[in-house]
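In practice, a research group might receive sequence data for several interacting partners and want a quick structural hypothesis before committing to experiments. The following worked case mirrors that situation: the sequences arrive first, and a predicted assembly follows.
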Amino acid sequence: MRTALRRYPVLIALCLAALFMVVPFLIVAVNAVKSPAEYSRNGPLGLPDGLYLDGLKDFWERVDYDRKLLNSVLISGSVAVLAVVLSVLNAYAIGIGRIRGRTWILAFFVLANMLPQEALVYPVYYLSKQAGLYDTRLSVIIVFTVIQAAFGTYLLSSVLSRFPREIIEAARIDGADKWQVLWRIVVPVSRPTLGVLLVFFFIWTWNEFLLPLVMLISNDNQTVSVALGVLQGQRLMDATMTNAAALLGVLPALVFFLVFQRTLTRGIAVGAVK
Amino acid sequence: MTVTVERGGRVTGKQDGAVHPRRARDSYALFLLPGAVAFLAVVIVPFLMNTGVSLTDWQGVGSPEWSGLANYRELLDDAEFWESFRHSLFMVVAMAALPTAVGLVLAAALFDYVGKHFGSRTAAVLRACFYLPQVLPIAVAGIVWSWILAPDDGSLNELLQAVGLGSWRQDWLGDPDLALWSVMGVMVWVQLGFPLVVFMAGLERVDPQLYEAAELDGAGWWRRFRHITVPQIRPEIYVVLTWCTIAALKVFGAVYVLTKGGPGGATNVPSYFSFTTFFEKTQVGYGAAISTVLTVIILALSVIGLRLQTRAEDAEEGARA
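A structural hypothesis for the assembly, expressed as tokens:
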């Protein structure tokens, strides 16, 4: 009994801390549905009288938000798929093929993964201008496919190096060539890990800021993250607009979070050690 | 992750015949070809270009003029450069040291306390709350916090007013003495979920009998934390510290949306400094020098971090054997 009484303070303290983490989300949600009049009457902490959605609608139209969403989905989706394919090809050679010099090749991918984008951004900007790819979504897709594949190669190589060899041997004896072994055996067996990588790459690319900010200057090509960041940087939004922007930025993230939560936490466990 | 394999029907295909084992191994190199070409074009060539440009004087148009180490010499005397790196150290505290320490205690509390007494579901819900800011684009986190910390009708100031602490109202992001601390506070909020989730995942590996034995011996929560939790997940601690330190040195988006490096350079960081040098002042050679220095520091830290991690893992393997 005495322990039961002592237990609750810890739980309450943890709940309060968790609440502090979530409060900003709640404040945004509450204020995004207030009319400007309500806002100026009660300030940010008052509760809304009803659902006022015009602010959201105005903001949506003003920034052409469906276009931005489409760009983000297109770029993040393409990168996720392409980077997984590239990681699989690399990791197949390193983890299963065990090619010579693989330790150094792997070390290179680890370092490429750590390399700050600041050291690539100007040359990438310059080269894409030379190649006529500047301010295209394709340029961003290409760059992030490679950057994300660095991490994917590193992670998958260690997963595939523990792949049961006898399965591969058996398939080889059955007369399958390397290509068939890869697509019919290695990929289906590694599907859980590939799923995790797909989710990671999608969300990471969705959240990227520096390179898309530099590469995508026209409104028609911008992603959600860049469009909102630039608007915020201009300091031209009133409180209602700011909240609409914040809510529209938060919602996709919440959707990913709820849909992928299991995958994500499992994935972090995979990526954390080796 | 355990996987069960069902072998389908016979896979038919060309018979490779008896191949020389070494040749068979090398033919796998073909699978690396697309990756090699892509990395050459997107990582290696740009990186070498950047390093080359850092040894020149270049405005981004015309041809670069060779200047040797002049940019680096200039950096050493540049107060703004040193200032931005000093702010990086603050960011390391806010994004690596604090989240790791707090995350460790939280993970242990959720795993070894809440999970045991209130069920794993409660622990999972709390964990999700802490992890939530991690999935937010930094640009959006910046919008949310800029507005909460706004000087006139920001929620934080309104809240202080409401509880009778009106005299504490501040221009959180606009006051040069406060701005860096405010940005640090936001970064702790953003970063905390990552170490927590990694540590909780790591604790799943720990043999529950260790905790049971310790409890039977009458070890309290704190002693279990110090003698079981921390030593058992040491590899994860190194991974998280390395990863978060590097993230802290690269911080850009948060500074861009919260303060633009201001007021008066009070929150300038190397990444933002190189960005403005490249694209606003168009001193490309100088910007390249800044980012090259940043790269060297980050790669050195990565190597040290990886070293510590493998050593911790080897020690763990040794202890198990």
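Before designing any experiment, note the following. Chain B touches chain A through 110 residues (CB under 8 Å). Chain B has a mean pLDDT of 86.
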